[in-house]
Specification:
Number of domains of chain A: 3
Oligomer: heterodimer
Radius of gyration of chain B: 16 Å
Helix content of chain B: over 70%
Structural class of chain B: mainly alpha
Helix content of chain A: 55-70%
Number of helices of chain B: 4
Number of strands of chain B: 0
Strand content of chain A: 5-15%
Strand content of chain B: under 5%
Shape of chain B: elongated
């Protein structure tokens, strides 16, 4: 009975793991890079060189909101949603967002806060580190992407549980590593990495699902609250009642005086303004206070940064939540804690590094698992797919190379794209991400055309070169370089480049290892190639 | 059971298990979240949230069960019986709640 259970779990771990491993690798790698999305954005926008942007005065903030309102009224006078992101020390531009309908995608523009002109070339227009975060939770594919990531996360939980069942000697496994023993070494590495990071992996997977709990598991809200999410969340968050559309045209109030009243009410500087149902009688405007990371770094249950809600037609105050307060009951506090755990909103840089290391260990665990599957079968085909087996193995090998080496290449190339793409092209931020995906697609093509071991070596070699050359390309394109960043104490810029170089060295070490093993590998490839041709 | 069920287990039984895991497991987790929300002592929105937080563990456990069960039919029964039971009890509690 026990033996049979272990066997079925071994089967589930192997196959469930395999079919989800590539997407999970992408989620883990980009999520781990996303831990440092702010320093990456800092590097990409050359903020270290520009220096800190001077904070705006209250009058300048009010003027910016006025400029944004004028722009948005011309662009989207009946939008379901407007968002105005005020300039801050990280970004000098005024950011405006809008969405025509609830289902339509968000539009975004950067404006000059003084005159409202679209400011393409004045600052490097880039998604920065946010690109990795978006890739991580929605694969840049909106709600469909969120669902795919959710399914993969459930598969991750299943793989973790079945993996524990399979490894009966979990603690001995952790202390066992037999290097240079081929398949044994891959297995030992996979086990050690998995066991080492097991609590982290459970935590990060489960809390990841919890962020989108209402999307993934809406049954409770449907059955117990008639599926009315708006009023459900108003009750859960102890906020004001939702304001449904009235379909009566009404003129929007001036937003800048409301912003100033909001700042006075919450006694904090505003950072973001949201207008909903523009042009309708039900329109409302919410002023959000600026987030204070230092005040929150030792807390797991995040507190409000303060916000004030006004009727956007007559300007009446609807609701004010002061900064540093918490609304909602204990269960909501649990959910918020889980969010904070996932987003590593606590503990400052030491905790971020711990997450980064655990995340990379998890990423490496996924890679070793995928590689182990093929290493086992290169030696001796398990013949799972009958006559199609060699072709399926080839497909798995190609996907392994593309998902692991190819995505690593595309991720570091994204930094190069940021530096090499001209500053004045239209939709520059979008182009950067498109080039990232085009490069990733090219690595798939490359992996499909080259013999497996050559594909691994070539893609890893390019990744290593791009990682090690990052300070150089920055120097050549912007005139800023590592030593000046270090000299001015710009740890974010220097940190990005030094970390990239560490990855470059890791890739070099892997390459050295692969080159040593290559001779007998090529023989095996030949036999695999003949097997494929024969099939 | 063989260590490589794809070889020996009929393909249909494997597909049946995969459907049971993905859809049956999800349905069981959904019913569980409704059922538990009736039992939790919190106010309604919090009870629903709390129950749903647990339901992802149930989904994971259901998938494990489906592949551990001796046969596809047993796997389905193991989902359907607790699912139907929790569904019926939830309906009864909903009815009792709205009657008072």
């Amino acid at each position: 009975m026990k033996q049979r259970f272990r066997q079925s779990m071994s089967w589930l771990h192997t196959w469930g793991g395999l079919w989800f491993t590539w997407i999970l690798f992408a989620i883990f790698l980009t999520g781990t890079l996303g831990v440092f999305d702010d320093p990456i954005s800092h590097w990409m926008r050359e903020q270290g060189k520009i220096g800190d942007i001077k904070p705006l005065t209250a009058e300048q903030r009010a003027e910016s909101v006025k400029v944004a309102q004028h722009y948005l009224a011309g662009k989207a006078p009946r939008a379901e949603f407007w968002g105005i992101g005020l300039p801050d020390e990280a970004q000098a531009a005024l950011r405006v967002f809008w969405r025509e309908q609830e289902e339509s995608p968000f539009e975004q523009r950067l404006l000059d806060p003084a005159n409202g002109r679209e400011s393409g070339a004045s600052q490097r227009d880039t998604e920065g580190g946010h690109h990795f975060v978006h890739m991580h939770f929605e694969l840049h594919a909106g709600t469909a992407g969120i669902w795919i990531v959710g399914a993969a996360t459930v598969a991750m939980l299943v793989a973790l549980v079945s993996g524990i069942v399979v490894h009966k000697k979990i603690f001995t496994d952790f202390f066992t590593f037999r290097p240079r023993k081929g398949q044994r070494s891959w297995l030992d590495g996979h086990n050690a990495l998995g066991v080492l990071t097991l609590p982290f992996l459970f935590m990060i997977s489960y809390t990841g699902l919890i962020i989108f709990w209402a999307l993934y598991m809406p049954a409770g809200i449907m059955a117990r609250h008639d599926g009315d999410e708006e009023s459900f969340f108003a009750a859960l968050n102890e906020g004001p009642a939702p304001r449904p559309m009235q379909h009566i045209d009404a003129l929007l109030h001036e937003l800048s005086p409301l912003m100033l009243r909001g700042e006075a009410a919450i006694e904090r500087e505003a950072s973001f303004v949201v207008v909903e149902h523009v042009g309708d009688r039900s329109a409302s405007v919410r002023i959000f206070g600026r987030f204070d990371p230092d005040a929150e770094s030792d807390r797991l249950v995040g507190r409000s940064s303060g916000n004030a809600l006004f009727d956007a037609i007559n300007g009446e105050t609807i609701d004010v939540q002061k900064p540093n307060t918490v609304r909602g009951g204990n269960v909501l506090a649990i959910q918020r804690t889980m969010n904070a755990l996932h987003f590593v909103r606590f503990g400052g840089y030491p905790m971020k590094w711990l997450y980064f290391i655990c995340g990379m260990a998890g990423t490496a665990m996924l890679a070793t698992g995928a590689i182990l599957f093929m290493v086992k079968r290169r030696k001796k085909s398990a013949d799972e797919f009958g006559t199609a087996t060699p072709r399926v193995y080839r497909l798995i090998e190609v996907l392994n190379v593309t998902a692991i080496a190819g995505l690593s290449l595309a991720c570091i190339a994204y930094f190069w794209i940021n530096r090499l793409l001209p500053l004045d092209i239209a939709d520059r931020a979008v182009r950067e991400i498109q080039l990232f995906f085009i490069l990733w697609l090219l690595t798939l093509l490359h992996a499909g055309l080259r013999p497996p071991m050559r594909a691994w070596i070539e893609q890893l070699a390019v990744s290593a070169a791009l990682c090690l050359g990052l300070p150089l390309i920055n120097l050549l394109t912007t005139g800023d370089w590592l030593f000046s960043a270090l000299a001015r104490g710009d740890s974010e810029t220097a940190g990005v480049e030094l970390t990239a170089m560490v990855f470059g060295l890791i890739f070099m070490a892997i390459l050295r290892h692969l080159r040593q093993r290559q001779p007998n590998q090529q023989n095996r490839e030949k036999s695999l190639a003949t097997a494929i041709e024969g099939a | 059971m063989s260590p490589h069920p794809t070889q020996t287990r009929p393909r249909l039984a494997l597909i049946s298990r995969i459907v049971a895991a993905l859809i049956g497991g999800y349905a069981l987790a959904s019913v569980f979240s409704i059922f538990l929300s009736h039992l939790l002592p919190s106010e309604l929105p919090e009870a629903v949230l709390g129950a749903t937080l647990f339901s992802f563990a149930i989904y994971t456990a259901a998938i494990i069960w489906v592949f551990a069960a001796a046969s596809a039919a047993r796997a389905w029964l193991g989902l359907l019986i607790p699912g139907a039971l929790m569904g019926l009890l939830s309906c009864a509690m909903q009815f009792a709640g709205s009657a008072t």
